[in-house]
Amino acid sequence: MDITLSQILDLVGKLDDSPGEETSRERFRRYLQDNVRKVGQVRDYVGECLRISGDRYNRAFQDLVNYLGHFLEFEVSFGRYKGVQGQIGFDGHWKSPTGFNIVVEVKTTETYAIKTATLVGYIDSLISEKVIPSWGNALGLYVVGRPDPEIRQLENAILAEKRTHQLRILSVESLLSLTEMMNEYDVSHEDILSVIRPSGPTIDPVVDLMARLVAEEKVEEIPKKETTLSSPAEGEAVYWMTPVRSEKELTAKECIKTLVGGGKIYAFGERTPGRRHLKAGDWICFYAQGEGIVAHAKVVAKPTKKPHPSVKQPEKYPWVFRLDKTVLYLDNPMVIDAALRSRLDAFQGKDLNKSWAWFVQATRKTSKHDFGILTRGWLKAE
User: Fold this and answer.
1) Beta bridge mates, 138
2) Mean pLDDT value across residues 61-87
3) Do 135 and 186 sit in the same domain of this protein?
4) Mean pLDDT in residue range 60-64
């Protein structure tokens, strides 16, 4: 990093609540917006805030925590550094595109007693002023810089007051980790919300997120026989397998029937593994979650960001690519059982009785050999 936080603060001046567009506070926040594009930079600055004491570092820490909200795709309103009579003194207000609101209270340490009534009062006031619709659309979030495992006053207060559905605590380290996950893995804004919000009756979204993260780690563990897949010769076909999950309105097989069979297209999300590398001439097979491989096709063109009306969630899956030579076997899926796995390059040297879900939880390259097995020997027919 070319410039330290201390040097930036020396340049912008004293951080305070003075109004105006050219104040130190606004210059600092503009600097972050214009120059800090990577989470690693924020992590460095946060570390500096936690190592050095003083008001200017505490205030910079508050702004940095709020800036992380931008990385997580919230609309962020920065709060005041110090509360004053007649104004709502929240540290930050994060509004999700889904309509959910998070009111943030930033604490460098837990050493001093924290009154939950203060944050609850901020949210009540925002509801009164119609900035937030209701408590059903809101959450109070404490972000703590240096959590002390021996001091659990805040956690105990939330539990004793039965406010677990209204208030949550998150260390800045965990907030940074969530931000890094979103930037490096196939983690969406909705995934982040499912982690931060109080859990509803269904825990599937969190489990699904964990499974996908594990799957993406496994994708990197390419067996020796597959090492050439990472750098195929120019123009050479690459073979892919992609999982299709059932959604609320559509089963996996219905989705494949509609898109692959009917429309001869498919769509990837922004962070789908392999999205940037898929190209015309490649082959792809489709795994219906919990059933098996039910279709395959040849890729006609690389993914283009042009949402298609046939895709049920075009905002989530905007990268569309065309297919040809589509073959569907929806009623006779190729089940990936132990016997089949024993024939695949991807499982050579692995215990076939251990968890293998990593193989079907993220889009991945396969060897030509494995693709032929998964699609019932179509290569011979070609």
Assistant:
1) 101
2) 93
3) yes
4) 97
Q: Are residues 12 and 100 in the same domain?
A: yes
Domain count, the chain: 2
Tell me what pLDDT residue 225 has: 44
Considering the domain architecture, whether residues 163 and 92 belong to the same structural domain is answered as: yes
Q: Are 253 and 328 in contact, with CB atoms under 8 Å apart?
A: no
DSSP annotation string for 263-331: ISEEEE-TT-TTTTT--TT-EEEEEETTTEEEEEEEE-S--EE---TTSS-TTT--EEEEEEEEEE-TT
- Long-range pairs, 92-100, Cβ under 8 A, ≥24: 92/62, 92/65, 92/66, 93/126, 93/131, 94/66, 94/69, 96/189, 96/193, 97/73, 97/189, 98/189, 98/190, 98/193, 99/133, 99/137, 100/137, 100/138, 100/139, 100/193, 100/197
Q: Are residues 157 and 39 part of one domain?
A: yes
Digit-coded pLDDT (tens) for 286-326: 999 878 999 999 999 999 999 899 998 898 899 999 999 99
CA 340 vs. chain centroid, Å, equals: 33
| Three-state DSSP state, 52 | coil
Strand partners, 141: 104, 168
pLDDT in tens, 202-225: 777 777 777 777 766 655 544 444
Residues 256, 345 within the same domain: yes
What is d(CA 31, CA 21) in angstroms, rounded to the nearest whole number? 13
The predicted model scores a pTM of 0.64
- Pairwise CA distance, residues 217 & 186, whole Å: 11
Residue 86 located in a structural domain? yes
Identify whether residues 349 and 252 lie together within a single domain. yes
- Per the structure, the complete domain to which residue 122 belongs is given by 5-196
Question: Does a structural domain hold residue 205?
Answer: no
Q: Using CA atoms, how far apart are residues 126 and 134, in angstroms rounded to an integer?
A: 9
Mean pLDDT, rounded, for 93-100:
96
Confidence of residue 226 (pLDDT cuts 50, 70, 90): very low
CATH number at residue 265: 3.10.590.10
The pLDDT of residue 222 is 44
Return mean pLDDT, the chain.
Answer: 87
